[in-house]
Design a protein that fits this description.
Layout (H helix, E strand, L loop, with lengths): L2 H38 L1 H5 L3 H20 L9 H34 L6 H17 L7 E3 L10 E3 L5 H39 L5 H38 L5 H14 L3 H12 L1 H15 L27 H14 L5 H12 L3
Antiparallel strand pairs: 1-2
Length: 356
């Protein structure tokens, strides 16, 4: 390799590092803003609303992923490299798992008008599973980080005191396979919700209204994951295939392409944040209120705590089981044009205010 070729490759690698740092840094702002606003308005926007609680957990995980990607390519063998690898694996998987939980719960709300399990049990399942998967590589001497020396990409797993076979096994079993599982869950349940929506519409059943509100959101989450994670995942398998078959290709160039695609995964957080803000009126209103306080340099302004979010995500847990009966009331009223009594009107208004 000539000096010019070597310098060109080093410049390309440096450009991919800058790209990762910039994308990770900018992307972290979006999920972090969701975390901040939901913590600030926890009592009105989160408490008693399981679906918003899962959105908060996803936003926390995505913030950590973006910040770890923003570290660039730490030198191998350093603590910073080990921290980056540990954080990337743990919080990327945590984000996928809570996204799966959100989609599963939305599916149960549409089909069964109830949650699968409550927040406490879902936390026990997700955190226990994620911690076990995170610690398994240590059992064979596989560590997080990178070996000593120059690192050509973000730190993840490395052989450590184990073997390459163990390294590859844990990379598949604790990371890639779980991403594929998340893909499958989100795609399958999204299709089921869409089909359920059209079947109900064909049969003139009242829960069509709920199903249509849900599947539009589910599709957005599905598309966001496909856009950000599929290219990187597909390229990783191609990279492993090229290494295994000994194809005559510039591995340095593969590293550069892989770094760009991995940097794009940081966009998952911003996309989910935009979905949340687009579908949640009160979150946008809260940030506009905060911005007015900053612009006007005013700190003691009464906070608007109204909760009239337009998203199904914002439904209160107390009303999930009432969805079917309320939709029946709406359909009956539309068909017979009979005025409802005050109690029925109050129930419908209460559910509509929570986002149905």
């Amino acid at each position: 390799m000539s000096t010019d070729d070597y310098n060109a490759e080093r410049d390309a690698l440096h450009s991919s590092e800058i790209f990762s740092i910039v994308i990770g840094s900018i992307s972290s702002i979006f999920p972090l803003s969701v975390v901040l606003i939901l913590i600030q308005r926890y009592n009105t926007l989160v408490r008693g609303k399981s679906l918003v609680h899962y959105v908060l957990m996803i936003a926390i995980a995505d913030t950590m992923v973006c910040l770890s990607i923003a570290l660039g390519f730490p030198i191998g063998g350093t603590k910073l490299c080990s921290i980056q690898g540990f954080v990337l694996f743990f919080f990327s998987r945590l984000s996928w798992l809570f996204t799966d939980v959100l989609i599963i719960q939305l599916f149960f709300v549409v089909v069964f008008q109830r949650y699968f399990l409550n927040v406490k049990y879902m936390h026990c399942i997700v955190w226990s599973l994620n911690i076990v998967l995170q610690l398994l590589p240590f059992s064979t001497g596989t560590y997080y980080g990178f070996s000593d020396g120059i690192n050509y990409g973000s730190c993840c797993l490395f052989v450590g005191k184990g073997t390459y076979e163990n390294y590859y096994k844990w990379l598949q079993y604790t990371f890639n396979i779980w991403l594929l599982i998340s893909f499958s869950i989100i795609i399958i349940l999204s299709i089921v919700i869409v089909l359920f929506s059209f079947i109900k519409k064909h049969n003139n059943i009242s829960s069509t209204y709920l199903a249509q509100r849900v599947w539009s959101i589910v599709i957005l989450y599905c598309v966001a994951m496909m856009i950000t994670w599929v290219p990187c995942t597909a390229f990783f398998y191609y990279f492993e295939y090229a290494v295994a078959t000994g194809k005559s290709i510039s591995y340095f160039r593969l590293y550069v392409i892989g770094n760009y695609l991995f940097g794009i995964t940081a966009l998952y957080g911003p996309l989910l944040s935009l979905i949340f803000y687009t579908k949640t009126v009160d979150a946008r209103r809260a940030w506009m209120h905060n911005l007015r306080c900053i612009i006007n340099l005013v700190t003691n302004i009464e906070i608007d705590d109204r909760t009239t979010c337009s998203s199904i995500i914002s439904i209160d847990d107390r009303y999930v089981s009432e969805v079917e009966s309320i939709n029946n009331i709406k359909v009956t009223n539309n068909m017979h044009m009979n005025p409802m009594n005050n109690n029925d009107s109050d129930i419908i208004r209460r559910i509509d205010d929570e986002g149905l």
